[in-house]
Amino acid sequence: RRVSSVLNRDVKQFGKQHLFDGSEETCWNSDQGTAQWVTLDFPRPVKVSQLHIQFQGGFSSRLCTLEGCRTGEELVKISELYPQDSHAMQISFPRMMVEETVLEKLKITFGSSTDFFGRVVIYHLGVLGERL
User: Fold this and answer.
1) Which residue intervals define the domain F5/8 type C in the entry (predicted)?
2) Quick one: which of 58, 90, 92, 103 has the most CB atoms within 10 Å?
């Protein structure tokens, strides 16, 4: 896992580990700037079918671009998602990902933050699919 930035470089309080810790009390909070992102490397090939994401309302993204690739290949655009500016859990079914897209790396770029300073806050990120 890698992220574009962490608010005030405070990885203990706002680091990437909070994307997947299952706690409703913790979150990844990016620093300011446009085009924040999260990159996930899988230990073996996967076929992704769903993306679960929970933003903090007011700190979400209007556009999420999904890119993926196999090890040693260049990232290619898979899909675009248009999340709501809400604190509710959002579940997306990227159409192209369901159609046999096998990857070992997934990059989610948050291109248009609803926050004036470009910050993104995510309480939960889940990637569902099948290991191959």
Assistant:
1) 1-54
2) 103
